[in-house]
Amino acid sequence: MKITDIRIHRASRDLSPAFLANWDPQPRRSVEMALVCVETSDGVVGYGSGDSMVGFEPYAELFLGQPLMAVDNHVRILETLTFHAGRYWPVEAAIWDAIGKTLNVPVASLLGGAAESLPAYASTGARMDPHARAEMCQGLRDEGFTAVKLRVPQEDLAEGIATVHAVRDAVGAEMQIMVDLNQSWRMAGDLRTRLDATAVRRFLDACHEAQIFWLEEPLPLTDRVGLNSLRGTGTRVAGGEMVRTFEELLWLVDDDVLDIYQPDVVLSAGMLRMRALSDILRSRGRRFTPHTWSNGIGLLANLHTAAGVGAGPYFEFPYDPPGWSLDRRDFGLSEPIRTDGAGMVHLPEATGLGIDLDFEVFPQERNRT
Ligand SMILES: [Mg+2]
């Protein structure tokens, strides 16, 4: 069975009102999505999405005519492209989707089959008044979530400290609270002054009573001394969501920079490599749990990888209505992915990645499978 076609369809959805992401100085007035379709000689079509896929077209020929199952080669080719062009990992996701559909199994079972569901953490994205956020988190707890991630504006740590304590007071001791400072990569053109290790350490000290489960991206990953100064303070350090290569991840592991490693499988270093990374981390008492903030298909690719390799202890579930509602996040799917009443996110029933495409958004694919 060979790869016979790779095509990309683009879709956009207006966001009105705009989504005010904490990591983006510009309001988001639309969300864009690139759907990668990998078709095989048997007529199976696999889907992937996440990266913008800008500039991929000239490289499609590297995959055409190649055996679908030759994942090792496909991944190594994609790794060569991260130097020349972009992060085309949705191609790998689409290949796995096609393989799963061909073999009639969920992709998670091909990557280890460690779990069929994972505890989700509601990953908020917007800055919000501390009391409004605390009330919102009570609602999340009532929905069944056992963990929530908060964003702290880097220019107003006092507001962030107030938010962390207000949320802790509101949700009680049982719910886990993660905090993301979004300081390891930047939106294009964002030249705001970064926090330094001293400011971050003071923030952590001020939040001590609230028992933060992990602090995410407190500093750039190049600030190894600063990151190391935050280790062993009673709060885990998480990061690595946009690291560009598997080798960079291994350097971070060698220097033991993080407790929790979060490469996104459709934006960072792919799915296959996370099988290896997860094994290495487990043997060293560290954990892998991926960033998932792209779209519903990207979420599914990360979910299958995470479930397959036994990632954890919590899985990122972007959810911050009304700015980032399930409808907005999962546009392109016929139904949004949901958690159950116990805050668990389950693998879909279907084979492959379990993507149920919305053909109103992608009419080009309506009669292809
Ligand atoms: Mg993050």
Task: Describe the structure using short key phrases.
binds magnesium ion, 20% strand, alpha/beta, 32% helix, TIM Barrel, Enolase-like, domain 1, 369 residues, 12 strands
Question: Can you tell me about this structure?
Answer:
The protein is α/β, with parallel strands linked by helices. It has two domains: 3-106 and 358-365, 2-Layer Sandwich (Enolase-like, domain 1), CATH 3.30.390.10; 110-346, Alpha-Beta Barrel (TIM Barrel). The chain has eleven helices and twelve strands. It has helices at 71-84, 90-103, 107-110, 130-143, 157-171, 197-206, 224-230, 246-254, 272-283, 296-309, 326-329, and strands at residues 3-19, 28-40, 45-49, 117-123, 147-151, 176-180, 212-216, 236-239, 260-261, 287-288, 315-318, 344-346. The strands form two sheets. Strands 4, 5, 6, 7, 8, 9, 10, 11 and 12 form a nine-stranded mixed β-sheet that branches. The chain has a three-stranded antiparallel β-sheet with strand order 1-2-3. Helix 6 (197-206) runs parallel beside helix 7 (224-230). The mean pLDDT is 97. The structure holds magnesium ion.
Class derived from helix and strand content: alpha/beta
Bound compounds, each kind once, are: magnesium ion
CATH level-two architecture of the largest domain: Alpha-Beta Barrel
For the largest beta-sheet, the strand count, sense and barrel status come to: 9 strands, mixed
Mean pLDDT: 97
The name of the CATH topology of the largest domain is TIM Barrel
The whole-angstrom Rg is: 20 Å
Runs in which pLDDT lies below 50 for 5 or more consecutive residues are: none
Q: Strand tally, please? A: 12
C-alpha geometry = globular
The percent range for strand residues is: 15-25%
